[in-house]
Amino acid sequence: MVKLRARCLLVGDAAVGKSALSHMFHSDGTLFQKNYSMTAGVELLMKCVQIPETSDSVELYIIDSAGKQTLVDACEKMWGEPSLLFLVFDLTSEPSFASCSHWMERVRAHCGDLQLPGVLVGNKSDLSARREVEASVAQHWAQSRGLDYHETSAKEMENCEAPLLGLARTFHALYQDHRDTIQNLGPG
Amino acid sequence: MIDSSLSSLGAKVVVAASSDENHPPENIIDGNTSTFWTSTGMFPQEFIIRFAESTQISAVTVDSYNVKQLKIEKNTSPNASQFESVTEQELKRTEGHLQSNTILLNGSNATHLRFIITSGYDHFVSVHRVSVQNVQT
């Protein structure tokens, strides 16, 4: 049994639903924040995810960071060295999807020598009539950046667990690779 | 001279920031580089070795993998507190084999050595052996 720990950076444009999603995780899907309250700084949430069919778990330290451009500079100082990327856009807003590359570059600059696995999440899937970003387009973009793609609705509590489990599984797989590697190392 | 493992000399690992039950921190001081302690995510990571008695140390050798920034602190107290900084180094990256670095401590006295890994070349780092060269008396 092992408990892994990962610093998971939650970013994306303002009002795409990052905090709504993170509150959903924290309350195990019971609490949808109906009134919008903009995150001005960063909020830290801890969520422990069990890896199915093992006794292992991953503690995700989710850093919910403000999306508004003018606040990002101040928040960046709190990012530290992230282990995982949780990138969110609004399915009803093409510009929020277009921003994803900028977000990715910005986060990568904090990663030093570490690779940054993660997920791309299209939120607000309940607003299907107003959808501006096709699933196939988002899926393709995510794949080209090495991210897994998920669609969620924090409001309808739909599929919210999937990206978390995806992140935890990815980190767990990295750990297993690392263990296999060092078990086969020669002496220095 | 490295004659025997630290654990056979009565040393113990009294703190470790991570633990996988298959790769416990005791593996650091068993004198064997094929067993290891591994971190389980995020930095910094640290472990503290307590010697059976106050020891004059001329150098310490650390066999590890993917460790980047390493800080070493020591104290001469019976408790694992009030450490003073000894050195801070950036270790070279290796591939396919372990990092092996000997760090001179210039004969300073210590009852505890604290190793703080502030960054790594990967999300996870491992320490396979710490051995100590004593000042010959």
UniProtKB/TrEMBL annotation, chain A:
<dbReference type="InterPro" id="IPR050209">
    <property type="entry name" value="Rab_GTPases_membrane_traffic"/>
</dbReference>
<dbReference type="InterPro" id="IPR001806">
    <property type="entry name" value="Small_GTPase"/>
</dbReference>
<dbReference type="InterPro" id="IPR027417">
    <property type="entry name" value="P-loop_NTPase"/>
</dbReference>
<dbReference type="InterPro" id="IPR005225">
    <property type="entry name" value="Small_GTP-bd"/>
</dbReference>
<dbReference type="GO" id="GO:0031514">
    <property type="term" value="C:motile cilium"/>
</dbReference>
<dbReference type="Pfam" id="PF00071">
    <property type="entry name" value="Ras"/>
</dbReference>
<protein>
    <recommendedName>
        <fullName>Small monomeric GTPase</fullName>
    </recommendedName>
</protein>
<keyword id="KW-0342">GTP-binding</keyword>
<keyword id="KW-0966">Cell projection</keyword>
<dbReference type="GO" id="GO:0030990">
    <property type="term" value="C:intraciliary transport particle"/>
</dbReference>
<comment type="similarity">
    <text>Belongs to the small GTPase superfamily. Rab family.</text>
</comment>
<keyword id="KW-0282">Flagellum</keyword>
<keyword id="KW-0547">Nucleotide-binding</keyword>
<dbReference type="GO" id="GO:0003924">
    <property type="term" value="F:GTPase activity"/>
</dbReference>
<keyword id="KW-0969">Cilium</keyword>
<dbReference type="GO" id="GO:0005525">
    <property type="term" value="F:GTP binding"/>
</dbReference>
TrEMBL record, chain B:
<keyword id="KW-0479">Metal-binding</keyword>
<dbReference type="GO" id="GO:0042073">
    <property type="term" value="P:intraciliary transport"/>
</dbReference>
<dbReference type="Pfam" id="PF00754">
    <property type="entry name" value="F5_F8_type_C"/>
</dbReference>
<comment type="function">
    <text>Component of the IFT complex B required for sonic hedgehog/SHH signaling. May mediate transport of SHH components: required for the export of SMO and PTCH1 receptors out of the cilium and the accumulation of GLI2 at the ciliary tip in response to activation of the SHH pathway, suggesting it is involved in the dynamic transport of SHH signaling molecules within the cilium. Not required for ciliary assembly. Its role in intraflagellar transport is mainly seen in tissues rich in ciliated cells such as kidney and testis. Essential for male fertility, spermiogenesis and sperm flagella formation.</text>
</comment>
<dbReference type="GO" id="GO:0005929">
    <property type="term" value="C:cilium"/>
</dbReference>
<keyword id="KW-0969">Cilium</keyword>
<dbReference type="InterPro" id="IPR000421">
    <property type="entry name" value="FA58C"/>
</dbReference>
<comment type="similarity">
    <text>Belongs to the IFT25 family.</text>
</comment>
<protein>
    <recommendedName>
        <fullName>Intraflagellar transport protein 25 homolog</fullName>
    </recommendedName>
</protein>
<comment type="subunit">
    <text>Component of the IFT complex B, at least composed of IFT20, IFT22, IFT25, IFT27, IFT46, IFT52, TRAF3IP1/IFT54, IFT57, IFT74, IFT80, IFT81, and IFT88. Interacts with IFT27. Interacts with IFT88.</text>
</comment>
<dbReference type="GO" id="GO:0005813">
    <property type="term" value="C:centrosome"/>
</dbReference>
<keyword id="KW-0966">Cell projection</keyword>
<dbReference type="GO" id="GO:0030992">
    <property type="term" value="C:intraciliary transport particle B"/>
</dbReference>
<feature type="domain" description="F5/8 type C">
    <location>
        <begin position="16"/>
        <end position="125"/>
    </location>
</feature>
<keyword id="KW-0106">Calcium</keyword>
<dbReference type="InterPro" id="IPR008979">
    <property type="entry name" value="Galactose-bd-like_sf"/>
</dbReference>
<dbReference type="InterPro" id="IPR033558">
    <property type="entry name" value="IFT25"/>
</dbReference>
<dbReference type="GO" id="GO:0046872">
    <property type="term" value="F:metal ion binding"/>
</dbReference>
